Q: What sequence folds into this?
């Protein structure tokens, strides 16, 4: 295939050539970045929580009326008994928060008492001795809390339990040698000893502010005695979730009606928690996907439109070429090659534009750097799209009969 | 002449329906996407108190110890009880209010309504006049009620509807956390967006249903909700929050003139120096006094995703426009013969240009209409999202007008190059090849 005649023909259609190339470049730049954002959101969505999610639900219980912390603690322990007695319930625990909840307590962890800067931030989970089993966490070193270690904590106390458990991610950060059990760390209220390490436990939020300590959690042997926002976490036997979710609030109200469990989000299965935590990411991924598809469709339509016009304009020339001995195949190849040349030019500019846009996004929206795979993927998609779009007009051109050359001369 | 051009445009557009449809659809999609995201952005970055926000300021001082001191890091976002009270009692601004958020269990006297939790705001008397809060019944409380920690409460219209059937409930009693409060005022509908005075408790959420004097909320042990940031020995102790080294209150002032703003900044500096001399403040003196809208910017109140979507939509519109330019170029040049005849019969370049621009405008108008429908659809989808700003996404008259201006303006712009190219055609050449 001779490229030179194609180039000289294109020189006579500068505006059209430039517009197609521009469109391909812009589409490529947007599609590359959109695909990249989609991938990042999906990867975020796939991060594990470490919990036995299908069998867990959470109750947010708020008390009505003024009570002393001691009374609150007693009431909560009664509630745990009530929930444990329900049919289908395997285990129950209570905490100040749970993974993916969207907010909670995070605090600095230090390795020495006189350290000025925190070594790392960490999520603080309040827990009793049933916490690990209820959530379905895996203890990989040391031991669980003993029942007698769990103490009530009211709003007047400072966080300084004698023992804690930590997640593997936090243990690795603090003690890279892997010997965290038995070591001392410093929380806001003073020193504490690590007695156990659990494998995986996600932070209470998946938003950006919690990213720096995503899987670093400290589990403290405390029951939080406040009238607002304590969570009962219930694990049911497989298949019993729905029934237990219906029965639990009824049983709690029957035991003590002076409480509020919100109708809308007072009782949530972990599936709902997960959907809620990631709804923004999922929405963004879907939107990006839609935009990509529409953009590609519009660009394809634009190429079809403009190439059709060119074919119509050049019928006579095509006829002359055919009369001079060019085969249908030659004509088809001519238009395909022409499109490939324009697409390549557009793609080249598009790659530069995509990188520029990405660099700008990195500074403004804290995104990551675009990886080369997405650029290549975008280039391939657009080249294929261009060839696909040009195929119909090119086929039409190849069917122009040599007789056209003789007409209206 | 315009009507003749319009007639020509319609004929030309009808002649090649597929191409016309393609251009209109492309414009409509681009406009629809842009207007949907732009409307959301417009709503979210709007002025919560038009006409008032210019005189509202958010004083910031730095009471933290030297732990982790970094001069480049921002000032605390809230104030401590001690600083808040000092600044409040100094009364150096035209109006000032100290406040924090909370949640209270409401125990209705009426049988049939179960107890429920409601978001609350604990604040001081200037809150209502300073933020121009409208009252349906009654009024706010006085500075003397702040001092005496009076057990009074102001509720919103929706809570009044729920508890008192919409009747004037001033003088009635409302029980919250086993404490009786006297209702002294009912607000008319009031929902500033964003929820500017406390961005930690929901940025576009409904505002609170219950307003209680700050002092009384402390006496009744009503629970605080929102951000608490502590340092040093601070553990976020709720019962002793007055003395803990924690910031957990928002302090707003009204300053009616630039001179007063400068004077207040001066006052904050003096105050910090004085506190430093007393040994309460440790860090080098640095104060902040951002205006309301500036404070919204600092806090990045508009979600990043929304801004990203807006940029994306405009990128999309750009591709749609480039696409339209290409198609129009093809269309106009294909009619070179017809245009050649018009030129030969005496039409000037300018007249041919005008004719082609009318045709572009028709496409723009059709695209704008389609875009408007798509924007309505898009906003309907946004409203079905569970985000806290969802219910705000509505097209207002300004945005409606903006849609058409954008659509027609963009298409005219897109038509410029093709129309100009078509005008350059030499009539003689076209006539010869006919």
A:
């Amino acid at each position: 295939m001779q490229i030179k005649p194609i180039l000289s023909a294109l020189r006579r259609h500068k505006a059209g050539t430039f517009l197609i190339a521009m469109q391909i470049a812009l589409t490529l730049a947007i599609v590359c970045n959109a695909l990249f954002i989609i991938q990042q959101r999906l990867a975020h969505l796939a991060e594990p929580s470490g919990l036995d999610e299908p069998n867990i639900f959470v109750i947010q219980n708020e008390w009505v009326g003024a009570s002393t912390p001691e009374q609150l603690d007693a009431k909560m322990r009664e509630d745990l008994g009530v929930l444990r007695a329900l049919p289908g319930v395997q285990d129950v625990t209570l905490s100040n928060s749970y993974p993916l909840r969207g907010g909670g307590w995070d605090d600095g962890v230090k390795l020495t008492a006189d350290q000025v800067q925190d070594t790392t931030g960490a999520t603080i989970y309040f827990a009793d001795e049933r916490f690990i089993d209820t959530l379905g966490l895996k203890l990989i070193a040391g031991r669980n809390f003993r029942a007698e270690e769990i103490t009530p904590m009211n709003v007047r106390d400072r966080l300084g339990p004698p023992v804690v458990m930590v997640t593997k991610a936090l243990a690795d950060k603090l003690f890279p040698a892997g010997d965290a059990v038995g070591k001392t760390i410093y929380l806001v209220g003073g020193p504490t000893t690590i007695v156990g390490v659990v494998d995986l436990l996600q932070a209470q939020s998946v938003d950006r502010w919690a990213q720096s300590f995503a899987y670093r959690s400290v589990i403290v042997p405390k029951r939080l005695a406040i009238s607002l926002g304590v969570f009962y976490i219930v694990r049911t036997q497989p298949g019993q979730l729905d029934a237990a979710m219906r029965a639990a609030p009824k049983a709690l109200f029957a035991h003590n009606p002076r409480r509020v469990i919100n109708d809308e989000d007072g009782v949530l299965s972990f599936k709902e928690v997960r959907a809620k935590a990631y709804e923004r990411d999922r929405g963004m991924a879907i939107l990006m996907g839609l935009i990509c598809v529409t953009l590609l469709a519009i660009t394809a339509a634009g190429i079809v439109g403009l190439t059709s016009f060119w074919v119509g304009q050049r019928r006579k020339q095509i006829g002359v070429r055919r009369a001079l001995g060019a085969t249908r195949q030659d004509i088809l190849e001519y238009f395909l090659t022409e499109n490939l040349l324009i697409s390549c030019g557009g793609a080249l500019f598009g790659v530069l534009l995509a990188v520029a846009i990405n660099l700008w996004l990195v500074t403004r929206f804290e995104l990551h750097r675009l990886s080369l795979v997405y650029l290549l993927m975008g280039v391939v998609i657009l080249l294929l799209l261009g060839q696909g779009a040009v195929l119909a007009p090119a086929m039409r051109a190849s069917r122009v009969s040599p007789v056209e050359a003789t007409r209206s001369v | 002449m315009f009507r003749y051009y319009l007639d020509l445009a319609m004929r030309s557009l009808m002649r090649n329906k597929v191409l016309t449809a393609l251009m209109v659809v492309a414009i409509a999609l681009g406009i629809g996407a842009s207007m949907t995201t732009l409307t959301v952005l417009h709503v979210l970055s709007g002025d919560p108190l038009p006409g008032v926000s210019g005189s509202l300021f958010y004083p910031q001082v730095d009471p933290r110890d030297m732990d982790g001191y970094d001069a480049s890091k921002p000032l605390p976002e809230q104030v401590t009880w001690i600083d808040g009270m000092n600044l409040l009692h100094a009364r150096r601004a035209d109006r000032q209010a100290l406040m924090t958020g909370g949640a209270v269990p409401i125990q209705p006297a009426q049988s049939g309504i179960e107890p429920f939790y409601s978001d609350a705001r604990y604040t001081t008397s200037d809150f209502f006049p300073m933020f121009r809060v409208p009252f349906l019944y009654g009024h706010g409380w006085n500075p003397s009620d702040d001092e005496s920690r009076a057990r009074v409460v102001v509720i919103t219209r929706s809570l009044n509807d729920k508890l008192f059937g919409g009747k004037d409930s001033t003088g009635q009693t409302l029980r919250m956390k086993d404490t009786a409060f006297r209702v002294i005022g009912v607000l008319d509908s009031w929902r500033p967006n964003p929820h500017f005075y406390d961005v930690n408790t929901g940025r576009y959420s409904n505002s609170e249903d219950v307003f209680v004097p700050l002092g009384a909320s402390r006496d009744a042990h009503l629970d605080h909700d929102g951000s608490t940031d502590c340092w040093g020995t601070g553990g976020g102790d709720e019962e002793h929050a007055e003395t803990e080294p924690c910031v957990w209150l928002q302090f707003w002032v009204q300053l009616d003139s630039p001179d007063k703003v400068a004077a207040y900044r001066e006052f904050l500096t003096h105050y910090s120096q004085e506190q430093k001399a007393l040994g309460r403040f440790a860090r080098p003196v640095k104060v902040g006094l951002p205006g309301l809208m500036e404070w919204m910017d600092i806090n990045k109140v508009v979600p990043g995703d929304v801004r990203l979507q807006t940029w994306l939509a405009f990128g999309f519109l750009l591709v749609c426009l480039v696409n339209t330019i290409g198609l129009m170029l093809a269309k106009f040049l294909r009619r070179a013969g017809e245009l050649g005849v018009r030129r030969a019969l005496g039409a000037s370049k300018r007249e041919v240009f005008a004719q082609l621009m009318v045709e572009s405008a028709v496409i723009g108008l059709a695209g704008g209409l389609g875009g408007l429908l798509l924007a309505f659809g898009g906003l309907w989808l946004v409203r079905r999202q569970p985000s806290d700003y969802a219910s705000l996404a509505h097209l207002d008259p300004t945005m409606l007008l903006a849609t058409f201006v954008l659509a027609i303006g963009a298409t005219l712009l897109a038509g410029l190059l093709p129309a100009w190219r078509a005008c350059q055609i030499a009539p003689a050449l076209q006539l010869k090849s006919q």
About this structure: Chain B touches chain A through 54 residues (CB under 8 Å). Chain B has two domains: 2-45+303-432, 53-298. Chain B has a mean pLDDT of 86. The radius of gyration of chain B is 30 Å.
